[in-house]
Design a protein that fits this description.
Layout (H helix, E strand, L loop, with lengths): L3 H16 L2 H8 L3 H15 L4 E4 L2 E4 L1 H23 L9 E7 L1 H18 L3 E7 L13 E4 L8 E16 H7 L14 E2 L4 H9 L11 E2 L3 H10 L4 E4 H5 L4 E4 L6 E10 L6 H19 L1
Parallel strand pairs: 3-4, 3-5, 7-8
Antiparallel strand pairs: 1-2, 5-11, 6-9, 6-10, 6-11
Length: 296
C-alpha cells in the first residue's frame, strides 16, 4: 500500500524525468538536491531497479523508468485534479481552474479575457498551461482546453467559437528595406521564418502552395511564440494570427489574397465539470472572449 513517503519519492522520480537532472528536479520541487538524490536512491533500492544512468548532459531514464513514467504521471494528474476540486465548493464562484491552450493563444489572446474574468470573479485562481499538444481532459490534466480540432470523445463537451485566421506577415520596416513579394514563388527571395523540425508546420506551408523546405527558412524555431517574436523583430516574413497582427501597427500582412488559412477553434471541458460553477464561469468567459477575437 502506498504511503506519503512513497509519493514523495515518486514525485522526485517524476521531477527528474521531466527536468533531466537532480538540480532541475530540486528547483521544481523546491527541495534540496541531496533530498532528491536520496529519494531516487531509496526507490531504486526498495524496488531493485536502476531508474537513471548518468550522462554528460544529465540523467538518462532507463527502460524500466520509461515504463513507470505513465503510472506516476497519472498519479500526479489525479493529485492535481484532487487539489483543484477541493479548492472550493461546486457551487462557488471561487477556486482553482486549470486551462490549457497553444502557446500563441495562451500568451497573446487569453490574458485579456482572463483579466476581465478575474475582475468579475476575484475568487477564481487560474492555472494556464502553454502546450501545443492537447492535454488529456479525460485524465484531468486540465479542466478546460482551447483546441484547434474538434474533440471526438463522447465524455467531452465542446463549444465551437469560430475560425481563427492566419496569414503571412512582416514588420513594416523590413518590407521598406527589402520590398514586398509579388507571389508565393517570389517568397524565395526573402528571409522567411519557419520550423526547425516540425513536419506539420512545414506541411501547412506546402498545402497553401509555398514550396519552402526547412533549409530555405532564414530563421527556424519550432515554437510559435519564437516565430512571432522573430516577425516582430523584423527578421523576415512568417505566419501569425491576423488578429494579433491587426493590433500591431508595425506589422503588415503579405500576399493576403494568395496565402491564408483558418483554424477551427473549440473550447472543451469534461461533461462531469460543466455544472461546477467556477468551470462554467471560466468556460463561458473563454467562449465569449474567443468568439469576439475570431470575429475581429
Amino acid at each position: 500500500m502506498s504511503t506519503p513517503t512513497d509519493w514523495e519519492r515518486q514525485r522526485a522520480f517524476l521531477a527528474v524525468l521531466r527536468e533531466g537532472s537532480l538540480s532541475g528536479a530540486a528547483r521544481a520541487l523546491n527541495v534540496a538536491q541531496p533530498t532528491i538524490r536520496r529519494r531516487i536512491e531509496d526507490l531504486e533500492r526498495d524496488h531493485g531497479v536502476a531508474l537513471f544512468t548518468r550522462a554528460p548532459n544529465g540523467l538518462i531514464p532507463t527502460a524500466i523508468a520509461l515504463e513507470l513514467a505513465s503510472h506516476v504521471e497519472a498519479m500526479a494528474n489525479a493529485a492535481a485534479a484532487f487539489a483543484r476540486t477541493a479548492s472550493a465548493e461546486a457551487g462557488s464562484a471561487s477556486g482553482t481552474v486549470r486551462i490549457t491552450a497553444s502557446e500563441v493563444v495562451a500568451v497573446e489572446v487569453l490574458p485579456s479575457i482572463l483579466a476581465q474574468l478575474h475582475q468579475d470573479h476575484p475568487g477564481l485562481v487560474i492555472e494556464l498551461g502553454l502546450n501545443n499538444r492537447s492535454e488529456d481532459l479525460l485524465a484531468r490534466q486540465a479542466d478546460i482546453a482551447v483546441r484547434m480540432t474538434r474533440p471526438l470523445q463522447e465524455a467531452l463537451v465542446a463549444k465551437r467559437i469560430g475560425a481563427i485566421r492566419l496569414g503571412l506577415h512582416a514588420r513594416r520596416d523590413y518590407l521598406d528595406r527589402h520590398g514586398t513579394p509579388a507571389s508565393l514563388e517570389d517568397l524565395q527571395r526573402f528571409a522567411t521564418i519557419g520550423f526547425e523540425t516540425d513536419p506539420v508546420g512545414i506541411a501547412a506551408y506546402r498545402e497553401k502552395g509555398v514550396t519552402l523546405q526547412r533549409e530555405d527558412f532564414a530563421f527556424r524555431c519550432n515554437s510559435d511564440i519564437g516565430q512571432l517574436a522573430a516577425i516582430r523583430a523584423g527578421i523576415g516574413i512568417g505566419i501569425c494570427h491576423t488578429g494579433i497582427a491587426r493590433r500591431d501597427p508595425g506589422l503588415v500582412r503579405v500576399l493576403p489574397d494568395t496565402f491564408g488559412f483558418e483554424l477551427e477553434t473549440w473550447v472543451v471541458t469534461h461533461e462531469d465539470l460543466r455544472h461546477v460553477e467556477r468551470i462554467r464561469l471560466t468556460f463561458d468567459a473563454l467562449v465569449k472572449g474567443l468568439q469576439d477575437y475570431a470575429a475581429s
